[in-house]
């Protein structure tokens, strides 16, 4: 099968609740069903008061970019505040969580490698 280039509005991607999250939603913008052979591009939205509890992925890294808003993330036990324009790298195996303590929604992109070994270990 030949891989085809793709351009489409992100708003058309289905928005699904994040497992174990509160006020947290995920959209796959480009993924395996689009023919992407190596990576998955996702957009997360955290509503005010939204959160994704502590978890880790033993075999994959994350690269993230905050599109809008401000949130607190936990990285291996350390809290950090990130804002629109910040980039975040989370190595494989690092425990992390997200919390929107503001009164505005937060959106961030998250790129992960496409792999059969993808696993989420929930810690909370």
Automatic annotation (TrEMBL):
InterPro entries in the record, alphabetically? Cupin_2, GPI/OXD, RmlC-like_jellyroll, RmlC_Cupin_sf
Q: Which UniProt keywords apply?
A: Metal-binding
A Pfam family annotated for this UniProt entry: Cupin_2
The source's superkingdom equals Bacteria
Sequence intervals crossing the membrane: none
Q: Which CDD domains match?
A: cupin_TM1459-like
Keyword Ligase belongs to the record: no
- Which residues are in the Cupin type-2 domain? 43-111
Example GO molecular function: metal ion binding
**Under which name does UniProt file this protein?**
Cupin
Q: Which organism does this sequence originate in? A: Oceanithermus desulfurans NBRC 100063
Lineage of this protein's species?
Bacteria, Thermotogati, Deinococcota, Deinococci, Thermales
């Amino acid at each position: 099968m030949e891989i085809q280039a793709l351009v489409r509005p992100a708003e058309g991607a289905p928005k699904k609740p994040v497992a174990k999250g509160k006020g947290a939603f995920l959209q796959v913008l480009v993924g395996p069903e689009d023919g992407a052979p190596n990576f998955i591009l996702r957009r997360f939205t955290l509503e005010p008061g939204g959160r994704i509890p502590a978890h880790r992925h033993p075999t994959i890294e994350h690269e993230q970019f905050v599109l809008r808003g401000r949130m607190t993330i936990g990285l291996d036990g350390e809290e950090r505040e990130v804002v629109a324009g910040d980039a975040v790298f989370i190595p494989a195996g690092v425990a992390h969580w997200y919390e929107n303590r503001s009164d505005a929604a937060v959106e961030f992109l998250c790129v992960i490698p496409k792999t059969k070994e993808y696993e989420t270990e929930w810690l909370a």
